[in-house]
Structures are given as C-alpha cells and as structure tokens.
Write a structure and sequence with these properties.
Radius of gyration: 20 Å
Order of helices and strands: EHHHEEEEHEEHHHH
Number of domains: 1
Largest sheet: 7 strands, mixed
CATH architecture: Alpha-Beta Complex
Helix content: 40-55%
Distance between the termini: 47 Å
CATH class: Alpha Beta
C-alpha cells in the first residue's frame, strides 16, 4: 500500500506534465520506456555512478537519498554539493533537454532543497539545474515564491494519492512525448461512445 504521506519527488514533475500519467506511474505502477525516458535514465545513471569527491573546498555527493516525513516527500538527488567555506548545501538536478518555459524543473529542485532543510536543519538558499542539450548550468534561487508554488503542488499530488483515482485522459500535444501513450490510449478513451450507446439502449426500453 502506498504511504500517502510520502510521495516521490519525481511525482511532482509527472503530475505537472499530466495528472493521468502521474497516477498511472505512482498509483497503478505502470511504466514503459521510450527514447526520451531511456536517454534521461542513462544520463542520471552516469551522474549517480560517480564517486564522492572534494575539489576546491566543495564536497560532491551523488545519488543522495532524501526523506522528509513532515513535508511528505522522499526521493534521490542527482548531486548534492556542500560548500564548506560558507557551509551551504546546493542540490543540482540534471536534465536531458533544455530549459523549460514552465517552472516545473525549478519546483522539483526546490522540493529537493526543502527535503535537505528538513533533514539537516539548514537553510538552502539556491540550487542549480544542468541541461544536457545546452551543456549549461543555471543557478536557481530558492525564494519564497518558488517555495509556495512547490508546497502547493505537493499538496495537489498528495490529494491525488489520497483519492487513489486515476484521472481520465486529457488529449494534447504532451501526449506525443509520453512513453505511456499506448497504455493510456487517449484517442480511444477520448472517442469512446460506449457509455452513450448503453444509455440510449435503456432509454429506448423505457419508451
């Protein structure tokens, strides 16, 4: 049984992409790879497999598992930097694509920062996003607005997990990039007229 108090950080991104996808993956335990997910998995495996090291006063820890019961989150960080001179912890998230128009990558990063704060009783002021497609690192401020947006999304995902109901498909451009499209079958469900057909049968009998 899924503990609704602890959701995986990755569920936040799945929920923002598609609520049905989030439910299929995290409630129904359905998963299927495509080129995009396989490439992303390979990238994260390379990052996670690196050994811990210290360079120029910065400690680098990879594949760090975090659990924050009060916040209701758990997950694994790609990279956690500890800048010893300033005693600052900086989460770094690796992405296969390029910066998005939406703030979802920032929200995922902020969720990691909130977990670190709960576990270590520290304040995380910023994190970083590294994109494979652009080969650039972007520093992200963990400010009040981003924290509020992240906590609101966490609450929405927790509500979905609490109801344990998979939402119906919402067909859109995002479906083309979804590895679960053959399982979800948005076209079939979207055009399904069986309910109306049965309703008409009973209506005919009543008449």
């Amino acid at each position: 049984m899924i503990d609704v108090r602890l959701i995986n950080i990755s569920a936040l991104q799945h929920f923002a992409f598609c609520q049905r996808q989030c439910a299929l993956i995290h409630l129904e335990r359905v998963w299927q790879e495509n080129y995009l997910t396989a490439h992303g998995q390979q990238l994260h495996e390379r990052v996670d497999s690196g050994e811990p090291e210290t360079r120029k006063g910065v400690r680098f820890e990879r594949g760090v598992v975090v659990t924050a019961p009060r916040l209701g989150l758990t997950g694994k960080l790609d990279l956690l930097e500890h800048h010893r001179q300033t005693d600052q912890f900086v989460p770094v998230e690796y992405k296969r694509g390029k910066p998005k128009i939406s703030d979802i990558d920032k929200v995922q990063l902020c969720a990691q920062a909130l977990c670190i704060e709960e576990m270590l009783s520290v304040t995380v002021t910023h994190g970083a996003l590294w994109y494979w497609q652009t080969r650039k690192r972007t520093d992200i401020e963990i400010d009040h607005q981003l924290r509020s947006k992240t906590k609101a999304l966490i609450a929405r995902v927790q509500q979905l997990f609490k109801t344990r109901k998979t939402p119906p498909p919402t067909k859109g451009k995002h479906c083309k990039a979804c590895s679960l499209i053959e399982i979800c079958q948005p076209d079939l469900t979207h055009n399904d007229g069986s309910g109306d057909y049965v309703a008409r049968l009973f209506k005919s009998e009543d008449e």
